[in-house]
Amino acid sequence: MQPPLLPEEVLRRVLRVGRFHGMMVLIIAGGFGLLSAAAGDRVGAVIGLMIAGAGAIELHGAALLRGGFSQGVSWLIGSQFFLMAAMLGYCAFRLTHVVLPPVPPNLTEMVETATAQLGMTQEEYLTFAYRLGFQVVAGMTILYQGCMALYYLRRRAAVTAAVAFVDRET
Predict the structure, then answer these.
(1) Residue 128, exposed/middle/buried by CB under 10 A (0-12, 13-18, 19+)?
(2) What pLDDT is recorded for position 166?
(3) Is the distance from CB of 65 to CB of 15 less than 8 angstroms?
(4) What is the 3-state secondary structure (H, E, C) of the chain?
């Protein structure tokens, strides 16, 4: 069994995760927000920019920690809940405002086979698949962002100790 990590190593790891995750969220969500805006999807654009904002909040928390401010952990945790709220809001909007896209020609046969097997109309099947997709996204969001918040929360004491130790050294 390995001994627990030193607080300085925990801080390094939290900073690495915070910077990487925050940057990926910022880039990916910002890109999707811009694509949604270009396609005329106002709701998608706003949600994309809100999620990109969550990435910026996470980067801000990492920058605070790097600067020696222990409240950066609260920013890291808060960013996860803000991201979760934005994603769940988007899923709720899409579940209450169903807009079925047209079936691509290469999938028509598969959809017809599935509807025949399930005894559904094509519209019922597509609505079911649409809603199931957004329910899965909502569930995965709760799981992933909850785990990320828990990751930061469980390391708060070690990160705070490491930041305080670095402050005493300088």
Answers:
(1) middle
(2) 63
(3) yes
(4) CCCCCCHHHHHHHHHHHHHHHHHHHHHHHHHHHHHHHHCCCHHHHHHHHHHHHHHHHHHHHHHHHHCCCCCHHHHHHHHHHHHHHHHHHHHHHHHHCCCCCCCCHHHHHHHHHHHHHHCCCHHHHHHHHHHHHHHHHHHHHHHHHHHHHHHHHHCHHHHHHHHHHHHHHC
pLDDT digits (tens, 9 = 90+) for 36-48: 999 999 999 999 9
Q: Are 112 and 121 a contacting pair, CB within 8 Å?
A: no
- What is the reported pLDDT for 2? 86
Helical axes 122-154 vs 7-38, angle rounded to 10°:
150
* pLDDT averaged per 10 residues in sequence order, the chain, 170 residues: 90 97 97 95 95 97 95 97 97 93 86 90 91 97 98 96 72
| Residue 47 token pair | 């949600």
Integer Cα distance of 158 and 153 in angstroms = 10
